[in-house]
Amino acid sequence: MLKNLIIYRIATSWSMELATAEATLAKSPFEECGPTQEKSVGWVPPRGEEHGSLVESVGGQWIARLMTESKVIPGSVLARKVKEKAARIEQETGRKPGKKESKELKEEAKLDLLPMAFTKQGSTWVWIDPEAHLLVLVDALPGFAVALLDTAESPQACMAHWLKEQEPPTGFSIDRECELKSADEAKAVVKYGRHPLDIDEVGEHIDQGKLPTKLAMTWDDRVSFVLTEGLQIKKVSFLDTVFEGQKQDDSGFDADVAIVTGELTKLLPDLIEALGGEGRTELSGASTAAHRTTIVTGSPVGTSHNRRFPSRPLRMASRLLIDWFVQRRFGSFRAHCAPDSQAFAVCRRTGLFELAVLKNGSTLFSRNDARRFKL
User: Fold this and answer.
1) What's the domain range around 358?
2) Is position 192 within any domain?
3) pLDDT tens digits for range 239-254
4) Domain count, the chain
């Protein structure tokens, strides 16, 4: 339960009674895939009890569970079925199916195979802390405006500082797992697993432009986790100290929820503080996009995108600006852009322009809080 976390901030204006949330989720219950249905998504009782509540409240913490079922059709099986249909048409008409007809044949073949396909199921646990206005992974409630939690400092920059200086934030310790990645054309990756990180080699990699994308840490000798550059918390594990003093009969759903949420509600504020405190995330309605104002590589910022690519001179100038900005703010850190990278400027943070680099070129900037440099 709640092993990998993506943290969201709920708008302070949002308010809902537990009974209303229950009634809302009840409108989208999980149902198994029909004969020709490829995928089904819906809510199931988190306790696993038939006809149980879809939202459980344990100690004021709301827990829900989203179930997904999908049909599995091997690509080779689908291709063989399409080939058989195409061969039949060619035999009957003396012509090969065109591109459009081949696409239609593929859809027909899929419909033929779906009733016989195996299914696989997966579920996502959803945790809402109404008092702290935090949640993990849900936007299914009316008027429920959320945004990815924003911190004043980039997780990647902070992780690099902790590793290079060997000074983790108060209450945290650095464990034995780390991934460093370069943003240049080579895209070199260095991974450490079950290996001490208090070595000069790690600092040298950072000086060469390889920045951390993952770092294993432990909080208060109670919870171990892996922090990512995108502020995701993965591989959450509770240490033995968490269970000391717990009664043997103190088990089951309620006890699990109480332990998990009880520890995480204390860990998250400490982690946010270690990253410079919470950034200025503004939420006014359900359509509000997530605002990220940190230097990142390989991931989009915001959700409303302009897809016009900047000119080559702009890309070259942006690369120089990125190098200048990162050196000015973070000292020895240096960002390198691949030739096909896109660069954009993100503003609305302490009045300064900050830069983010997208390697795939699919996203340039958010209309809400980004502007392109005009050269």
Assistant:
1) 289-375
2) yes
3) 999 988 776 655 688 8
4) 4
